[in-house]
Every structure is written in structure tokens, then in C-alpha cells.
Amino acid sequence: MRILHTSDWHLGRSFHRVSMLDAQAAFVGHLVATARERAVDAVVVSGDVYDRAVPPLAAVELFDDALHRLAGLGVPTVMISGNHDSARRLGVGSGLLDRAGVHLRTDPAGCGTPVVLEDAHGPVAFYGLPYLEPALVRAEFGVEKAGHEAVLGAAMDRVRADLAGRPAGTRSIVLAHAFVTGGEPSDSERDITVGGVAAVPRGVFTGVDYVALGHLHGAQTLTERVRYSGSPLPYSFSEAAHRKSMWLVDLDAAGTVTAERVDCPVPRPLARLRGTLDDLLADPGLARYEDAWVEATLTDPVRPADPMARLTTRFPHALSLVFAPERDPGDPDVSYARRLAGRSDQQVAEDFVAHVRGAGPDDREQRVLRDAFDAVRADETLREVAL
Question: Which residue intervals define the domain Calcineurin-like phosphoesterase in the entry (predicted)?
């Protein structure tokens, strides 16, 4: 069976105030063309179809168009909700859409109930594990500790139990939206940390033939059977080195996996440039970036006048300016943002405690801070679900 694995469409999202709707429409056309031209047997979309719980109308219309075009091809499609989606909204009409070959799996209670498709070698069971927010699904899975590993492990126990009761030789695909150990994040994924731990081990997914992951925006191979497709388009400059693509996965009669990357159309390349403004404007080696979306980090010791206006005379698609004056590390004027770069909310809070008290928080206080951040994240998720 040939499967086209994609995820993290984020319909409705912009890139530094530039609308990505036309690029997203071009991607949908590319997806449909690939499914047709490469004789795909099933398309899987591993979450974050939309960028937010209540997407703009144009994004909903594009999603509707994608569903109609995929259904028109007669290629079955399996989709799950991600942490950006409203599971309830995305799942509306799922019973009717099943009849058209579009299978939306947004209810955690259905993790152990697969979509079963057939090929010349027999059945393939597709298990959809939507994003599982631990605080919201803990009771459903009967876990004592509300953490990502616990709830995802309980969901996979249901998958393995169902698979064990199916005919011998049934092959299996799992769709999941999670941060799996070994994956490389970018700046454009929403933090899903709970209890100080966001990642789950790859071993959670043992016992199935292929795991189609979503959430991280870079295409990655964690093992031959566990892969992230990444987002089809860039959504932050931290993705400048990404090759945007989908996985074309072949599953043979024995469940052996072979995979090929299929590139996605990207409107223009991304470039992260660094130097003084005069150097960036004069360096002939930067000519290849003149048509790119540019993030420029200016190292001038004094902020130059009208930097963006001057930068766009050479790089008309410059979108972001970062100021990082080159100073002695001991200089008291080193920016606050640079001191915080790469630090989590928890670390910033602990640093603040140390700053005002002269000593960092003890173990009990660290737990209090962690619980407070978890409560805020859970509250944000609950509000999105309620919308």
C-alpha cells in the first residue's frame, strides 16, 4: 500500500504578516496532483490542519476544497486533530465524511478503533491518535499521572489490544501528533510542555508498522518506521534550512517500509543574514538572497537610522530585523532578549527568583512554578476547546 504522509498545514497562518493562503492553496493542488500521479492508495494528515481553534473563513473554504478534491480522486484520507485545531470543530460531520472516504479522527475515545483499508495483500488498519492534552484526557485513559507519555502510552495500549484481535498479517499505521524524543523543534511550534516534560520516547509506538507523526515542522526520520513529515510551508525563520516535503511511504505485504521525500512548492526561499547594515548592503556574495524572505540580524554597535527602509532597497522581501550589537559580554547594555535566548518559561521564572532573593528556588518551589505554568497552559487549551 502506498501512503502519502503530511501534517501541519496550519491553514490560515501568515508568515511575518505575509498571507500564506495562496501558497497553502498551491500546496493543496500539489498534494492532489501527487496523489493522482504517484498512484497513492491513502493520504494521512497528522494534525494541525488549521492554525487556530477558530480559523478564518478563507482557511475553512480551502480545507473544504481540499476535502472535495481528495474525495473526487477516490483516494481515502485519514486526518487527526493537532494541538492548534479545535477537535470538536474539525470533527463536525465526520460520520457523513466517512462515506466519502474522508476519515476525521478527533475523539480520543476512538484511538483503538481503526479505519481499515484493503490492498492486494490484505487489510491495513489506520489508527488515528489526535493530539492528547493530558489534563483533558487523563480520565478517559484512566492514568494516574497527567503527562504526555502516560496518556499516549495508554492510547497505544488500546491500539495494540485492537490489533491483537485482528487477522494475522494485518498491517498497521498510527497517526499521532506529539513531541517524540529525538525530534528537532523549530520556533514555530506551540509549546506543549506539561509537568516539565514535553517529549515521549519512541518506544511508546512499538508493535505497529509505521508511525506518521505531526507537530514538529521539520521532516525527520526518527527510525525507518517513525517519521515526521514536517510542515509543507515555512512558518518561522528557524526553518530556513528545512527542505519542505511529504513522505511517500510504501508498505509491502510483510509490513516492510520504504519511504521517499516529495518536495513541496515554496513561494520563495528563506535567508538569515547577519552583519552590519553597510556590509549587508554591499556584500556581493549576498546577491543570491535578493529574492528571498530575509531576516537580518544587524551587529552595528549603534542602531542605524531607517534600517528596514535601507535594507529593502536591496532585499525587497526583508521581513524581520533583529538588533544584536557586537559588544563585550561584560557590557551591562547586553540586551535582555539575548540573555533570555533559548531559555524556557520555567528557567526564566527560576532566574527571576534567584535575582530578587539571592538564591534560586528549592525543589518544592520549582514544583509550584511548574504546576503554575501547567495550569496556565491547560486553561488556554480549555478556552480554545470551549470556543
Answer: 1-217
